[in-house]
Amino acid sequence: MSVNATETPASHSNSNSHQAWMYAHITTMLMAWIFCMPAALMLESRRPTGSFLAKCFFLLFDITGMVCGIAYRILAPDLYPGNAHQPLGWIVSLVAALWIVLSIIRSREAGNGKDGKMCDVSVMSTVNGDYLEHGRERNGAGSLELYGYQDRSCEQSLRGDEDDDRCDKDEDRRLMESPRTTEGWPSGLNAKILGCRIVQYIRLVLMATVLPLGFAAIVSGLAIWFGIFRSRHIFSGLAHCIKGGIFFFYGLLTFARYLGAFADVGWAWNVRPAHSTEHSRKGVVPSAEFTESFVICAYGASNVFLEHLNATRWTHVDLEHVSITVLFFGGGLLGMVLESSWVKRDSTSPPSNPLPALTILLLGAMMSMHHQSSHLSAALHAQWGTLLCGFAFARAATYILLHLSLVSAFPGKPFTEVVAAFCLVLGGLLMMLSAQDCVEAMDGFGLESMTVSAIGAGAVALVLAWEATVIGLRRCGSQSY
């Protein structure tokens, strides 16, 4: 069904009232949350000066954006009364500010406590020695030579990269277990606050959730800007945005894992740390496949009836939606069971759990045939369904490469994971855009599925390029200290 732009409700995007304030609000918020906040997170504990500058720029852009938004709300008419973007924006900004305050105090406390050094290299080198020793035992005495790692500088480079990751965790543990008073700034009161275990956990939780919260604020802001997801359409919008957002961040996490992130917690593709190393941390870190399965299971369990909340009569489309969530719940649960210690006894073996990829493959195949009311909607569903299938095939190719290739003690980077990450991020983006209100808006503007997918692919390429840049800055930061 085609919807003319003139038939849609009035929205901020087609309003001519004080648009300069809104454009300034959008620009500054995107600068804050897309550029400054990721840089601040990645440079944390690696380049304290760079992280501090990124946090300052974030606060500058974020406060400027809030001021511009307040000015626009005062001067322009409210075309979306009762929206959730305004309170969500305040909450997200407060969460970010709280994390920045706690991280700055912690970095000062860490510097004062250890004469400006961020970690005890001797202790960390011992831990990483276990990691490398485990690789030698697994692959034989000549495994490093087979991969050309005959120079000790390679080991030191790997150890230095992982030392910085474990250094941050070791400093958190030290602050949690031994609160103390220090001379100068921060004061003894700040040291006691940072020594509180609960406060440290709060800082880590804020650090892990601030980007997803910012993403939710951006998505809700775009919905308000275009005037979509009103009334009963809110449930369809929520379902598509939650599902698409999960796949979007799943893809970003997959690409970060390819770039070498999270190797210190056992998420390297070819080898996991030794058993003793895992238990020397603040608890046992689950495998990447267990985490993937848990997210899939949690989504399936919590969103069974989300898209049916706007209707009273059950249709075949509702049954399709429910069946998908049941598939996610069952597939994720089975994946977690296969990753449990009583099923998978060898925790140091390369990843080989097919359930996350199989679940997403089935979802992609089914959504490619999902009944839709318009040609544009059907085409978009077919596109992101195909992309999810592409992820599953790329992940299968990764497992095949791991089992056919020689295993190195150094974190591996299967090139197939680049394809998998791209398919996930683009598939998640198109999934969000395939909501009914989004499709009607695109149809009203005369957009075709090819145009939407081409623009989305370009945007995803830029996002992944920025992610690689930020992680590269983090790695350069570790080499310069």
Q: Would you kindly provide a written description of the structure presented here, covering whatever features stand out?
A:
Keywords: Membrane, Transmembrane, Transmembrane helix. The protein is mostly helical. It has a domain at 231-481. It is 70% helix and 0% strand. It has 17 helices and no strands. Helix 12 packs antiparallel against helix 13. The model is unreliable at 1-6, 114-160, 178-186 and 275-283 (pLDDT under 50).
User: How confident is the prediction overall: mean pLDDT?
Assistant: 78
Give the number of helices: 17
Radius of gyration: 24 Å
Principal-axes shape call: globular
**Got a strand count?**
0
Element order: H for helix, E for strand: HHHHHHHHHHHHHHHHH
Q: What structural category do the secondary elements indicate?
A: mainly alpha
Strand content: under 5%
Q: Largest sheet, described in full?
A: none
What is the rounded distance between the termini?
60 Å
Question: Can you tell me the residue ranges where pLDDT is under 50 for at least 5 consecutive residues?
Answer: 1-6, 114-160, 178-186, 275-283
Helix content: over 70%
